[in-house]
Amino acid sequence: MYNYTTAPSSFTQNFTVPLLVYPELYQIKTSVDNGIIIYQNHKKGLNRPPALIDATYSTFPNPPDRMLNSISLVPTIGLFYFALTPLITFVIILTEVVKEKEFRLRQGLVVVGLSHSSFWLSWGITGGVISAITTLSLIFAGYAC
């Protein structure tokens, strides 16, 4: 018997790694089993030397730890960042257009004398600048990764 809570923990290891092997415990178990064999032979009065246990042990091969060591976020979740950036840009521009529609800013600008083409040209320029910033940030992020 031994206190398992005093043994080193394998909590931070890969979950597929088998539990740790303690050679001292195997030696104690083999010694106790051999002692029982010797005692039983002596109790039965056998004069020949008993066949004692000679045990060896080995561990299972350890699989590579993919969870904590050498993790690379770009192959894992990098695609989401490249797809999310244009999506967020689109949502922001769409929100601003809807806000203008709700507050009827376009009708107010038409009353002042702004043409429809200049209104949409301004939004095209705004969208182009935001898309250029997004594209450049994606290019730099791609080069960095």
Structure description:
The protein is mainly alpha-helical and 145 residues long. It has 2 domains: 65 residues, no CATH class; 72 residues, no CATH class. 61% of the residues lie in helices and 0% in strands. Helix 2 packs antiparallel against helix 4. The longest helix has 30 residues. 0% of the residues are buried.
Number of strands: 0
Question: How many H/I helices?
Answer: 4
Shape: rod-shaped
- Please summarize the sheet with the most strands: none
Please, how many domains? 2
* Measured distance between first and last alpha carbons: 53 Å
What is the succession of H and E elements? Answer: HHHH
Share in helix: 55-70%
Structural class: mainly alpha
Q: Please state the CA-atom Rg, rounded to the nearest Å.
A: 37 Å
Strand share of the residues?
Answer: under 5%
Which ranges are low-confidence, i.e. pLDDT below 50, for 5 or more consecutive residues?
A: none
Keywords summarizing the entry:
single chain, mainly alpha, 2 domains, 4 helices
